[in-house]
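Thread: Newbie trying to understand structure tokens

Hi all, I'm a second-year student working on a class project, and my supervisor (Dr. K.) asked me to get a predicted structure for one chain before our next meeting. I've only ever worked with sequences, so writing a 3D structure as a token string is new to me. If someone could post the tokens and maybe explain what I'm looking at, I'd be very grateful. Here's the chain:
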Amino acid sequence: MSEMSRRMSPTERRAAFSVAGIFSTRMLGLFMIFPVFALFAHEEFEGVTATQIGIAMGIYGLTQAFLQIPYGMLSDRFGRKPLIILGMLVFMVGSIVCALADSIEMMIVGRALQGMGAVAAVLMATVADLVSEQFRLRAMSIVGMTIGLSFTVSLVAGPMLGELFGVRGIFWAIAGLAVLGVLLVIFMVPKISNQTFQREAEADPSQFRDVIKNPQLLRLDIGVFVLHAILTAMFIAVPFLIRDTAGLDSLHHWELYLPVMLLSFALMVPFIIQAESKGRMKPIFVGAVLTVSLMQLALLYGAEGFWSMFVILLVFFTAFNLLEASLPSLVVKLSPADKKGTASGVYSSSQFLGAACGGALGGWFYQLYGMDGLFLFTAGMGLVWFAVAATMVKPLPLSIASVPFTGVLSEADRDAYTAKLLSYDGVHEVVFMPDDQRVYFKVDRTRIDEAGLIDYLEKGLA
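---
Reply by user tm_fold:
Sure, no problem. This is what the structure looks like when written as tokens:
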């Protein structure tokens, strides 16, 4: 294979970075209010309860979870770009409703509308449409890194924008980000000339039962549910802790978050290298789960000043970022070769449902039992996840790919190809899908040249 063929084309790079940019506008819009919302709502809305604050913070996850798969299915029929634009406009309307809200109930409506702009699945399908098979994993990695970076930026940018324009100004800024996302769709995302159902990136409803019954994938779904439930719930109380114990008012919380997030990313890198390159994914992953849980107890019993808050949040976000980076990778490693899109869809819905439940239940525990109840609740969820994660299989460094085939292959031909492929050291699973005219396979990328195998199969099955 030539050196040129091993590089993404300009169109593929443009697709990857434009989709990553659209993702970042949504992520910033959803999370910038997390560091400041609880204090803002407490001061702005008379008689507001902690449960209402939690619902307002997490309700976006409920609408997002239920609508992202329908958005993906509609995009197969009406096109990717129109559905992405529709979702971003709905997101913009929700942000404006939040900016103008004069009651917590209206704020909840606005946050629910933000979640109704559920274009995540459509964006991933867009990447699959525009990027060739051999570079798809690289493009998805670009998008994934952007999502992680956007979350980090949101925790710092929220208090900064709040200091400059007030919390309502944050929502106006979010509406502006939605407009920017629409412009990226119109002017930067390449034209999709060959749109098809992308099994690697989209959910197939006929596969839901098999994916949900898969015990290894179910562990990951439970894990991301708990992780985002903890994140949303703890931000009901953390702003008050920072104000009361670290001595920072809400508009200066960025002075704590900025060094915490920068250092947490730096500290995460050696663990990622150990997990991926040294085959230590399971112990590092399980250790990070336990760390997230213990930091909830540390927030309850050890948050007594600026530096104690700094250390606790630094350790928490190092573990959190590590888990956020590892979980999607584990979905790919552990999902069946022909069910990656469905597994990712169920995983993503679990993440958003976790945010919704964490906000509502966290607020309820805080309202009834104070910070003690809230952090015991989050710690308890984390320890349950720790017990579940401890029983996971040791994941191999597997990736999923597919190639098309033309003509009609008999069952005997498919069996012969399957046997031949499985005879190669490093090929772990082969699934022919005659209806899709594609063959899906899982390979150990440390043992086999994935790009070379794809090239070989494309020539042999043409």
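A couple of things are worth pointing out once you decode it. The radius of gyration is 22 Å. The CA atoms of residues 77 and 370 lie 49 Å apart. Feel free to ask follow-ups in this thread.
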